[in-house]
User: Which sequence fits this backbone?
């Protein structure tokens, strides 16, 4: 069987120095297979963002094993982690972090530009294609900060897909959007998952959205307290009706 | 996006472009600093070149004297003449000076070689009598060491048999004009009556009052130095080499070789200390410019921490982040230096218009040399990059988690 996209074993994260040290994540075990579309839920302060940052290689665990797409991460230095992150992981943040000095197209092409070092026609072609996929083909040349919140988030999704990552991590991707835009964005994530087979791990506070995922992982006080398949969502026909239908 | 530009350049330029006001202000700041440095340098080198030129207008770069001459002059300013006045004993000739002349003419550093028979004499006209320095010269050669022909106030430079050229001060003292006769008497009593063919003004009152030029042969006769020369005057291609060349000639020929640098030691020291103090000022300007760049970039790192975090999340390495900020420093320095050079150029134009002699001619000649602009541009870029070291380190070391959450 192929490597899982994500494999965690006894992952721990401690903050603070020696005497004031406290643990936020107390040994997380988790496996995410290719093409899975999973929600990570839990009360505020339970450690969801902390976990996502560890998985995204933005931060290092205090203990435990973290394997991304078959690559052991414990022995890698910062540059190697950065490379791995750039190639295998896409991010969608709550506050649609685009770079305002660049256009929509340039933002989408940015991971490719960083990886290859110099711009080329192919990367802008790809950026245009991805913007078409998220329904923003006509906004290619617009500066990022001139777009609406929902549009910015869709650009961010297109950007997360630029390198064809194995895993997309989304930390409250719809948290800043109104219900309608949130539904649209969520539907888009679902569509990408179905069409490209990209795995998703989505942190959300919105139970409505969580229930549209195939799997729901619940974190409380730094421990996974439940991890269950969501039959309703998983059994549904692809593409059609992620946004409109409710469970 | 320009396709040839690497990612770091694109990001650096975009960041500068986006922080328009900030970038503009710091570039102007750098520009003013560079302008002051370039202006000062141009002014100083113009001023010094002018002073040196004036000082050397009546002096050889190097004077060769016979070795055993006892009374060595220590006098600045008037070179040849004081030297010969001081010696009481009979003039000595340089041995085999023709061969030496031929040899020195082969040196690449040496521009001109002029043997001179010079010594004390008296000039008499009517009741007036003056102690003078008699210089027997070959005008073709001498002119290439001291531009006598170019400094004539009246008449022409003709020193054939029975002819002499004197300074305007001496002419005044003796009441002589071109065409008048005067009588010259050497230390050993030889005397000759000569016709004044020209009056010179070498820009130095002492020289104008004392130097009396005659033909080499006349000089040799009057100074009882038949066939000999008392000294050989040299002009070099590069003034600054004078001391070095003088020492080499002295070592090779056994003669005494006095460079203008040695005979004008105080003057040269003054020039040097002027240059040192201006170096110090320039250094501190560069330092304050670099602090300015550094502080702007430090603020920019803080302002852009979120974007830095995003770029890091998308795979930008620490080294790439560092380069983006180093480049911003370099670009600010470079653009500032271009602005500064333009400013300096306008300052100089203005200065040239305002600083004039009473007769309307420029006080002295200065200009912005392309080399100076190139050095300023290179220097400012390097200073910018150095100033960006600390901000770039901070940008690279930024924790992406913190940056993104912020
Ligand atoms: N850099 C840090 N230093 C110290 N403590 C931290 C740090 N980051 C997070 N924490 C702590 O870790 C705990 C988990 O935080 P985390 O942000 O992961 O929660 P969360 O589940 O994402 O919450 P929310 O739903 O509000 O976003 C919190 O108690 C928080 O104070
Ligand atoms: Mg969170």
Assistant:
């Amino acid at each position: 069987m192929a490597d899982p996209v994500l494999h965690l074993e006894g992952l721990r994260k401690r903050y603070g120095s020696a005497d004031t040290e406290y643990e936020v994540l107390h040994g997380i075990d988790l496996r995410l297979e290719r093409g899975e579309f999973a929600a990570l839920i839990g009360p505020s302060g339970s450690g969801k963002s902390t976990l996502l940052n560890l998985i995204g290689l933005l931060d290092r665990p205090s203990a435990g094993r973290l394997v991304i797409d078959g690559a052991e991460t414990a022995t890698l230095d910062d540059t190697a982690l950065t490379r791995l992150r750039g190639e295998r992981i896409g991010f969608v943040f709550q506050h649609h972090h685009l770079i305002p000095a660049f256009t929509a197209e340039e933002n989408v092409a940015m991971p490719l530009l960083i990886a290859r070092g110099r711009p080329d026609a192919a990367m802008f072609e790809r950026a245009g294609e991805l913007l078409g996929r998220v329904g923003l083909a006509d906004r290619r040349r617009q500066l990022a900060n001139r777009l609406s919140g929902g549009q910015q988030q869709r650009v961010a999704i297109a950007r997360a897909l630029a390198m064809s990552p194995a895993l997309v991590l989304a930390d409250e991707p719809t948290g800043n959007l109104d219900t309608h835009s949130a539904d649209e964005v969520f539907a888009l994530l679902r569509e990408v998952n179905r069409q490209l087979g990209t795995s998703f791990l989505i942190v959300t506070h919105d139970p409505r959205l969580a229930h549209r995922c195939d799997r729901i992982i619940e974190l409380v006080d730094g421990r996974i307290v439940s991890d269950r398949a969501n039959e309703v969502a998983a059994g549904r026909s692809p593409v059609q009706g992620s946004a409109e239908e409710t469970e | 996006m320009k396709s040839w530009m690497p990612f770091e350049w694109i990001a650096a330029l975009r960041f500068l472009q986006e922080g328009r006001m900030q970038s503009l202000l710091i570039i102007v700041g750098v520009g003013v600093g560079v302008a002051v440095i370039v202006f000062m340098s141009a002014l100083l080198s113009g001023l010094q070149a002018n002073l040196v030129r004036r000082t050397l207008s009546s002096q050889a770069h190097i004077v060769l004297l016979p070795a055993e001459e006892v009374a060595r002059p220590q006098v600045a300013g008037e070179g040849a003449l004081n030297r010969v006045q001081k010696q009481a004993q009979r003039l000595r000739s340089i041995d085999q000076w023709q061969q030496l002349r031929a040899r020195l003419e082969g040196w690449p550093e040496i521009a001109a070689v002029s043997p001179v028979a010079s010594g004390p004499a008296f000039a008499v006209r009517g009741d007036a009598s003056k102690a003078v320095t008699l210089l027997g010269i070959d005008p073709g050669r001498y002119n290439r060491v001291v531009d006598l022909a170019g400094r004539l106030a009246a008449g022409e430079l003709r020193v054939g048999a029975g002819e002499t050229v004197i300074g305007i001060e001496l002419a005044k003292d003796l009441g002589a004009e071109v065409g008048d006769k005067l009588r010259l008497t050497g230390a050993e009593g030889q005397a000759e009556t000569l016709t004044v063919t020209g009056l010179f003004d070498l820009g130095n009152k002492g020289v104008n009052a004392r130097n009396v030029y005659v033909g080499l042969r006349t000089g040799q006769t009057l100074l009882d130095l038949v066939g000999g020369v008392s000294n050989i005057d040299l002009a070099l291609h590069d003034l600054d080499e004078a001391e070095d060349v003088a020492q080499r000639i002295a070592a090779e020929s056994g003669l005494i070789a006095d460079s203008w640098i040695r005979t004008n030691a105080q003057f040269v020291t003054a020039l040097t200390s002027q240059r040192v103090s201006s170096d110090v000022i320039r250094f501190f300007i560069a330092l304050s410019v670099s602090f300015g760049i550094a502080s702007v970039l430090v603020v920019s790192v803080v302002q852009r921490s979120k974007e830095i975090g995003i770029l890091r999340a998308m795979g930008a390495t620490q080294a790439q982040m560092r380069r983006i900020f180093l480049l911003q420093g370099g670009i600010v320095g470079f653009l500032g230096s271009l602005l500064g050079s333009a400013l300096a150029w306008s300052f100089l134009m203005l200065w040239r218009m305002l600083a004039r002699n009473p007769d309307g001619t420029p006080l002295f000649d200065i200009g912005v040399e392309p080399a100076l602009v190139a050095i300023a541009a290179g220097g400012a870029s390097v200073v910018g990059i150095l100033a960006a070291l600390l901000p770039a380190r901070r940008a690279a070391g930024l924790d992406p988690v913190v940056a993104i959450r912020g």
